[in-house]
Amino acid sequence: MSIWGKLAKHQRATEGRHMLDLFADDDHRAAEFSVHAGDMVLDYSKTCIDTEARDLLVQLARDSGVDVRRAAMFGGEQINETEGRAVLHVAQRADDDAVITVGGDDVMPRLRDIRARAYAFAEDVRQGRFRGQGGAITDVINIGIGGSDLGPAMATLALAPWHDGPKVHYVSNVDGAHIADTLKGLNPETTLVIVASKTFTTIETMTNARTARDWMAGRVSDPAAQFAAVSTALDKTVDFGIAPARVFGFEDWVGGRYSMWGPIGLGLMIAIGAQQFDAMLAGARAMDRHFSDMPLEQNMPVLLAMVGVWHNQICGHATRAVLPYDQRLARLPAYLQQLEMESNGKRVDMSGRDLDRQSGPVVWGEPGTNGQHAFYQLIHQGTRVVPCEFLLAARGQEPELAHQHKLLVANCLAQSEALMCGRSLEQARGIMAAKGLQGAELDRQARHRVFPGNRPSTTLIYPQLTPFTLGQIIALYEHRVFVEGVVLGINSFDQWGVELGKELAVALAPLLDGDAAAMATKDPSTRQLLGYLRAHQVG
Ligand SMILES: O=P(O)(O)OC[C@H]1O[C@](O)(CO)[C@@H](O)[C@@H]1O
């Protein structure tokens, strides 16, 4: 029987067993079903994974070739097979003396050079040596979308306590509301615009970049002098009019959603400075080392991935909630949606055959405690099981508000405990009886207060959310996605699924101005919507 078959059989045989029984049978379960990486701990003991399931999961990772593919990635091989590219985001945070080759060439000198240029420019902006036409830069707008936005925007919010540079804003949506609201109140004479786009063709980014340039043109004589660009398409940045001195390139073997470690992080570099950015890279590098050196059974990204495989592909839980008890990680779920769903939302394997199991899960979430007052009801009592992933810092950043951090921590621990332990009908009846209810009314009310429990969660716990820790966390998630992709046999590094909608949008835009012949080629629903939009003056 295949490992997949053995896992399915084991799941069927143990279905319904309560995780509290697993704890009762094993005094050391909490420690044994936890994994350490540096000072960070991932506790996955509040799941129904037992020793046999874990052994099978690790075996599955091994048989899928995780260690071989991992070596191939770190070694610069072309593992992004559909695009014929290496996958080397890890090079962007590698040691200063690292040698990493692609096609026989050491890529590190160029990477170090670009990082040094980006740091130097960031420092110039921070120290007021690079100035706007009305004085020192007060505001920076990063215009980008997807990987050219989500990573740096998430990290900029996460590292707010380290901000000592100009204010950094992120504009992504082609909806004019986004840029209009951002520009309101900014001074064009002291604003720097970074156009961040790997391809420099993305319609949202280029449209917003032109809008920002027009906004500036009304007030400064040379808008292009207050623009910088980050892209792999250097010719296109020149065509846009941005001086090469303020253009920061990167290579196509850094995927967009894996690119926050290099010049795509320029906005963050300006906000927190090179030293803190370096600390973030060091955290990621520490996780890279852990991932590449630790045996699979003690490897945090591998175990996190395999817990996900157990819940999604084996148990059939289609979604995963990411629940940071850390308000500054508010954008983490959105960032992970791209990282995980764009990477592992694939229907065919590497060789083009249909997958014979589910692809990656639907990832969503919100920071606790806000989520508790919104969707946790469903997590606790809904009919579907939603595996939860809690993130928690032992210390907050506000010593004067330590009492609030204690409350935050208590809430986080309470949620995973409630998910696991639940509340039985008998307990609920006891509570209702204590309130004086009796008979049929007691029974009716008690049933609404039952929590089934036995609902799985993991908790990632770390000392404090610092630049170093953030680097560890994000690299952990990157490698988890990689492992899951290898186990599913898919290419985690392309994203063909975003293309069709883009192509149709380009074709649709002119129809909004009314092209009857072209309208006729559309399906009845799209025609109806177009008709409504034209009647209500879409422009
Ligand atoms: O950086 P670019 O080239 O503007 O692309 C932005 C985003 O668009 C995508 O290609 C598809 O949505 C993402 O993978 C990417 O991060």
Automatic annotation (TrEMBL):
Catalytic reaction annotation: alpha-D-glucose 6-phosphate = beta-D-fructose 6-phosphate
Domain of life: Bacteria
Subcellular location: Cytoplasm
CDD domains on file: SIS_PGI_1, SIS_PGI_2
Database matches in InterPro entries: G6P_Isomerase (IPR001672), G6P_Isomerase_C (IPR023096), Phosphoglucose_isomerase_CS (IPR018189), SIS_dom_sf (IPR046348), SIS_PGI_1 (IPR035476), SIS_PGI_2 (IPR035482)
Pfam (any one): PGI
Transmembrane region(s): none
EC class: isomerase
Keyword tRNA-binding applies: no
GO molecular function, one term: glucose-6-phosphate isomerase activity
Keyword Isomerase: yes
PROSITE patterns in alphabetical order: P_GLUCOSE_ISOMERASE_1, P_GLUCOSE_ISOMERASE_2, P_GLUCOSE_ISOMERASE_3
EC nos: 5.3.1.9
Gene3D superfamilies, sorted: 1.10.1390.10, Glucose-6-phosphate isomerase like protein, domain 1
Pathway involvement of the protein, from the record: Carbohydrate biosynthesis; gluconeogenesis; Carbohydrate degradation; glycolysis; D-glyceraldehyde 3-phosphate and glycerone phosphate from D-glucose: step 2/4
Active site: 342, 373, 502
Keywords: Cytoplasm, Gluconeogenesis, Glycolysis, Isomerase
Function: Catalyzes the reversible isomerization of glucose-6-phosphate to fructose-6-phosphate.
Family named by the database record: Belongs to the GPI family.
Protein name: Glucose-6-phosphate isomerase
Taxonomy of the source species: Bacteria, Pseudomonadati, Pseudomonadota, Alphaproteobacteria, Rhodobacterales
